[in-house]
Specification:
Its EC number is 1.8.1.4. The chain has about 575 residues and is of the alpha/beta class. The chain has 16 helices and 23 strands. The strands form 5 sheets. Strands 1, 2, 3, 4, 5, 6, 17 and 18 form an 8-stranded mixed β-sheet that branches. A 5-stranded parallel β-sheet has the order 8-15-9-10-11. A 5-stranded antiparallel β-sheet has the order 19-20-23-22-21, with helices on both faces. Helix 4 (about 125-145) runs antiparallel to helix 6 and helix 4 crosses helix 8. The protein is globular, with a radius of gyration of 25 Å. The protein starts with about 50 loop residues before the first helix and ends in a 15-residue tail after the last helix.
Length: about 575
Amino acid sequence: MQSSLSLPTLSPTIPRSNYVVQSTLPLAPSKPINLRFCGLRREALGFSSLNQSDSHRVRLVASSRSKKVSASLSDNGSAPKSFDYDLLIIGAGVGGHGAALHAVEKGLKTAIVEGDVVGGTCVNRGCVPSKALLAVSGRMRELQNDHHLRALGLQISAAGYDRQAVADHANNLASKIRTNLTNSMKSLGVDILTGFGTILGPQKVKVGASDKVVTAKNIIIATGSVPFVPKGIEVDGKTVITSDHALKLETVPDWIAIVGSGYIGLEFSDVYTALGSEVTFIEALDQLMPGFDPEIGKLAQRVLINPRRIDYQTGVFATKITPAKDGKPVIIELIDAKTKEPRDTLEVDAALIATGRAPFTHGLGLENIDVATQRGFIPVDERMRVIDANGKLVPHLFCIGDANGKMMLAHAASAQGISVVEQVTGRDHVLNHLSIPAACFTHPEISMVGLTEPQAREKAEKEGFEVSIAKTSFKANTKALAENEGEGLAKLIYRPDNGEILGVHIFGLHAADLIHEASNAIALGTRIQDLKLAVHAHPTLSEVLDELFKSAKVKEHVSSPQAVAV
């Protein structure tokens, strides 16, 4: 299907709380050690604090277990008796990086294997360079919006841009972040092993083309994903491109077709139209933005698509796309998604294939441990433990991020990696994926956490509870009006009987930043009746969420278990 990959349907049996912790370490609370990754402190997730001496003691215990042992290729079927590392991570993307830093914090001797470049897709070919391009498109939109500027009393002459300078900005940002990630791991003592990692057997990995074998007590697979290109589409990297190519911004075509209207397609439509391109969306499903809450999607279409130089065809497949050559344009052959009858043929300057991403799991040696992928994804349980072809857990092997397909977001991969480290260091931890937010960095932005309204109503019907909806507009927010950015909506989906938040969806100025109050509330199990008492600075955009929670009608006025009187 050529719709961009949407967030997966998640099991309703996952506990609401974002953590389940059973400490096995007799550590007395003292001065907390600040966790330098993911912006979290230990107390925020409910973990016991470590003082400096306790942390040192854990590190010494872990180090004493780590004796260097050389493994030979002749005994791959059996597990080694001692190990080179406590934890070995295959893949140095955002997920692997988050797991590595947390492992060092917990005192584990850690190595990370990378066959390409540190940072993975997000840093080098994904969310980091795309945000650099979107920063440019945002500035261009402000400078091109004469009505908006006049409302603020500003007069600016025509805005222009230097394509190569814009491309350099994106490339330089990726390079800077990549260097920062590398230095952060090296400074903390994480060994970076260069080469493609192949699993030879239990707790054994071959690194690179040589016969170097590394052993580890626990292994995490974090190999990420690559752009998914449907059959019949010929990618030449020039006129028919994926997001990998588009981020280089080698050209700004007059007319570009974008196949898929999910996160990737929407963000690139924002970039291309701001820089002067005309865009045509090709969507296999009957509506644009199929992964979003329908009400938010309709509003976003009215603001992000209808007024811009964008047209679209829905309910169609691109069965064949031929790159431009010999003076001929890119040719796109469309058929009806349901009847499979020919629908149309488009001739455009370029085509961007934004049909989602596919897991990068080929060549990992999974057959050596009897693991069979499912559509390329590595099967795991709720604790990210790998499941073999017989349905049994593979000891000491975990898989995080895009490779397991639970939620294909960089910060989800990092959260999964941290969760795995918690487990291997003695704390049971189950990550609640319904508490993980997602965002689309268009102008304005879209963000969401938890269930959409249709998902919530389906769940309610099965489990026998009522669903209520609360909404608030950015037009009622002082800060948004001061910015002349009143176009926006926040939507709360909740249970009126007990105040549980089922989902929050925001479309508007800085929506990607605002969503975290809701995601943290879901993670910590905070109920609406307690959020109603929270104080927000005035005038700020955060009051959009304040008004949203205050407008909810909750029947039960019992505070959350976590609430503390002050």
